[in-house]
Design brief:
- This protein has about 240 residues and is α/β, with parallel strands linked by helices.
- The chain has a single domain (about 1-240), classed as Metal-dependent hydrolases (TIM Barrel, Alpha-Beta Barrel).
- It contains ten helices and nine strands.
- It has helices at about 1-10, 35-50, 70-80, 100-105, 130-140, 155-160, 160-170, 185-200, 210-220, 225-230; strands at about 20, 55, 60, 90, 95, 120, 145-150, 175, 205.
- A six-stranded parallel sheet has the order 3-5-6-7-8-9. It has a three-stranded parallel sheet with strand order 1-2-4.
- α1 (about 1-10) packs across α10 (about 225-230).
- It is globular.
Length: about 240
Amino acid sequence: MFFFNRSRNSSHSDFSAVGLDMHSHLIPGVDDGAKDVEDSIQLISGLKSLGFEHLITTPHTLQDIHPNTMDSLSKGHTLLDGKLPEGSSLSLSSEYYLDDQFKDQVNADKVMPFKGNRLLVEFSQISKPHHLEEEIFNLGIKGYQIVLAHPERYLFFHRQFDYYTRIKEMGVELQVNALSLTQHYGKGIKAIAEKLIENDMIDFIGTDIHHVKHLELLKQVPATKHFARLVDSGLLKNRDLI
């Protein structure tokens, strides 16, 4: 309760207290994010104006829609060489969908973890994978630290909130989307995001930015009481990735 009361009186004008965004879609032309280099630079510049000096961009790797590889993403990353706003840094990873392509890439050592050997993963937002815990366990055995992208958006978890505790106990880190603290994804997702923050379960916050419209929405987030609660709690690990 102490943290909550303190955060109600806390004020943040931007994301500078977070410093690093570890979930974004900024590589041109590889997924449903930035369409071209100009679009990428506009998004990166916008994130810098919001207080993010460091970016780990995580384009989708999803075999049926965005079947990216380490090589294809690296080539897209090089298109931005020398074009970043002064004072910005852009590292490359991916948001990996738990499918057969991902398993093949892991087995071939063709994934791109970020600091701490972390992999950002996602899966269907509608139905729980049949062998989710087994897959998490196997990735841990291989030495990877799993970060679950936007846990608040998996609708089947809403009916069994205790499962968030279960996967936390398995060592999974949770990353909330900043836009989930607005009504961008709907009231239900907002409520779960806030509940996860109130229960001190969030390790990272990410923008999950895809397009320019997200920049305007992100401006609303620092003024929310749950953003203040999360930042002031001291639990965020974003800066550990710098």
